[in-house]
Design brief:
31% of the residues lie in helices and 19% in strands. It is an alpha/beta fold.
C-alpha cells in the first residue's frame, strides 16, 4: 500500500556538516516536529549506510516518522528518493520520489509519488548550482507538476518556508538550516511552526468556500517545546510524548 507523500519540513542528512553528530541532529529535528528524513551519505559502504538507516528509523519510529533513502536501494525499507538522472522507469516501492530542477524533468515523471524542486534560493551546500528559481519560478512549476513538490535549496528561515507554502509547495526540504543548527530542535520547531501557520492561512484565504492546501493535504504535529532526549547506543533520541499542534496566530 502506497503511503502519503512527504509534507511539512523534510530533513536531508549530511554527517560531514552535522554540528553535533548526525544521529543527535536527527533526534533533535524529530523532537522539533520533523517527520520525514532523507538519508543521503552515499559515500558510505552499503553495510555502514544500512546500519545508519536502522539507527535513524529507530529515532523516527518514536514519532511515527519515515526514513527516505536517497538512491534506488531502500536499505531494508520501502521508500526511496531518486536522482534526476535515473533510473528510468523508477523501481517499484511503496513510496518513490525524484529530484527535479525544471519542467523537462517534471515531464519525465511516471509512477513517482512526489518530487523535490531545486534550487529555490542560492545554497551553500551546492554553491553556483542553479540559477535559483525563487518563489515565482517555484509557483509556475508547481502549476504544471503531475505530483506534489517539495521546495529545496537555500531554505533557512520561517519567511522562506512561508513563501514556499504560498507558492503551493507540499513542504520544504532543508539541510544546512538543521544540520548546522546549534539547537536542531528549536530550529526545526521554528520552521515547522512557520509551515503550519502558512497552511492555515491558505485555508482561511480559500476562495468561494473552497480550501486551498498543499497537494499532499498533510500537516505535521509539533511536539511540545523542551522535549528531552535520552541516550540510546550513545545517540540521542526523543522521549515519547503527546504531540500538540500550535494554533494559528
Amino acid at each position: 500500500m502506497t503511503g502519503s507523500p512527504p509534507a511539512g519540513v523534510v530533513l536531508l542528512t549530511d554527517r560531514l556538516v552535522a554540528r553535533s553528530g548526525l544521529e543527535r541532529v536527527v533526534a533533535g529535528a524529530v523532537a522539533g516536529g520533523v517527520r520525514w528524513v532523507v538519508l543521503r551519505e552515499k559515500d558510505l559502504p552499503r553495510a555502514e549506510r544500512a546500519a545508519l538507516a536502522v539507527e535513524l528509523r529507530a529515532i523516527l519510529a518514536d514519532a511515527g516518522g519515515t526514513l527516505i533513502v536517497a538512491g534506488p536501494d531502500p536499505l531494508g525499507g520501502d521508500v526511496v528518493h531518486l536522482p534526476a538522472a535515473g533510473p528510468y522507469p523508477p523501481p517499484r516501492h511503496g513510496l518513490v520520489g525524484r529530484s527535479c530542477h525544471n519542467e523537462t524533468e517534471l515531464n519525465r515523471l511516471t509512477t513517482e509519488h512526489y518530487a523535490t524542486l531545486s534550487p529555490i534560493w542560492p545554497t551553500t551546500t551546492k554553491p553556483g548550482y542553479g540559477p535559483p528559481l525563487q518563489a515565482t519560478g517555484l509557483r509556475k512549476l508547481i502549476e504544471v507538476s503531475p505530483v506534489p513538490l517539495l521546495a529545496l535549496g537555500g531554505i533557512e528561515t520561517p519567511e522562506q518556508v512561508t513563501a514556499c507554502v504560498q507558492a503551493g509547495a507540499a513542504g520544504v526540504a532543508v539541510l544546512g538550516a538543521l544540520m548546522r543548527a546549534r539547537n536542531p530542535e528549536e530550529a526545526a520547531a521554528n520552521l515547522t511552526s512557520a509551515f503550519e501557520e502558512a497552511v492555515t492561512q491558505k485555508v482561511l484565504k480559500g476562495r468561494h468556500g473552497r480550501t486551498e492546501v498543499p497537494r499532499s493535504g498533510l500537516r505535521p504535529t509539533v511536539p511540545t517545546q523542551g522535549s528531552s532526549l535520552t541516550a540510546r547506543s550513545g545517540h540521542g533520541r526523543p522521549q515519547p510524548q503527546t504531540a500538540t499542534t500550535k494554533e494559528s496566530q
